[in-house]
Design goal:
Elements (H helix, E strand, L loop, with lengths): L1 H16 L10 E9 L4 H5 L3 H10 L1 H4 E8 L3 E6 L22 E4 L4 E8 L2 E8 L6 E9 L2 E11 H4 L6 H5 L13 E9 L17 E7 L2 E10 L14 E3 L1 H19 L11
Length: about 280
């Protein structure tokens, strides 16, 4: 009885504090800080703690990022804030080859449109939003001034990391006709707030009854540190439009083939082509 009373009190609180999103011009901005840890594997086992710390510091620009999510009732636009490289003072152009570009989500039409740049070539990735079978939990916590509820899901790793590349994927690749091939899965832990009842979130995360303020996935944590509802200057929520149109799987195959080609060409004498004598 006591537990039921607490639950009803929380539901009532959400009802009182929830932001009214029914206004035609409703818009919000959510600011996220993302931090990843680096798994150095067997290579790291042979390094001192000082060496590991030095590498982490040099790669800080790739492991720590800030993003902005502009959203309304059915659309959102997610982009990374530009920053200078901590070592050279330049933007991290090489690292951007394997990071998510600006992305547009429309939950009404179930559409994802994301621009990607890979070694100077522009691509426009158009695909459906990935389905996420969320399991809602009773746990709650506060992020900033918002009460959040926990949700978890298991998702195919490739469906959410299609813009990335790992040599491990090539080494562990099995023949296409291998029916025993297992699908790698990643556990997602998300915290959403019913106080902002929009089914949006960072990256490709969506589908919960409230804005997602925190996501823990693999070695990455993404946390919202600031929210502005109905800002004085509303941002434009428009889908990217420039680049060669491809689907996610097609883009993944393009970067995989290119990386294999670069690896194969690395050992050849300058000017020699495959098949030449």
């Amino acid at each position: 009885m006591k537990r039921s009373s607490i639950f009803l009190s929380i539901v009532f609180l959400f009802g009182v504090l929830s932001i009214n999103i029914h206004a035609q011009e409703f818009q919000g901005k959510a600011y996220y800080f993302s931090k990843s840890t680096m798994n150095l594997g067997n290579w790291g086992a042979r390094m001192s703690e000082a060496q590991k710390k030095q590498i982490q510091e040099r790669l800080k620009n790739r492991l720590e990022k800030k993003y902005i999510l502009t959203f309304n009732k059915q659309e959102s636009f997610f982009k990374e804030e530009d920053k200078l490289d901590a070592i050279s003072g330049a933007t991290d152009s090489w690292g951007k080859n394997f990071t998510p570009g600006n992305s547009y989500k429309n939950i009404k039409t179930n559409t994802l449109i994301q621009n990607q740049e890979f070694y100077g070539k522009r691509f426009l990735v158009k695909d459906s939003l990935p389905p996420i079978s969320w399991k809602l939990a009773a746990e709650s916590k506060q992020i900033g001034k918002y009460i959040c509820q926990k949700a978890t899901a298991m998702v195919p790793t490739a469906a959410f990391q299609w813009y990335n590349f790992s040599w491990g994927e090539i080494r562990n690749q099995k023949p296409a006709n291998d029916v025993t091939k297992d699908v790698a899965m990643t556990e997602i832990e998300a915290w959403y707030t019913p106080q902002i009842p929009v089914s949006q979130g960072p990256l490709e995360y969506w589908g919960l009854p409230g804005l997602i303020l925190e996501v823990n996935s693999g070695n990455t944590t993404m946390l919202c540190y600031k929210i502005v509802i109905n800002p004085d200057e509303k941002g434009s929520i428009e889908a990217p439009s420039k680049g060669k149109i491809v689907a996610k799987q097609e883009y993944k195959q393009i970067i995989t083939n290119k990386m294999k080609e670069m690896r194969d060409n690395r050992g050849r004498p300058s000017g020699r082509r495959p098949g030449s004598r």
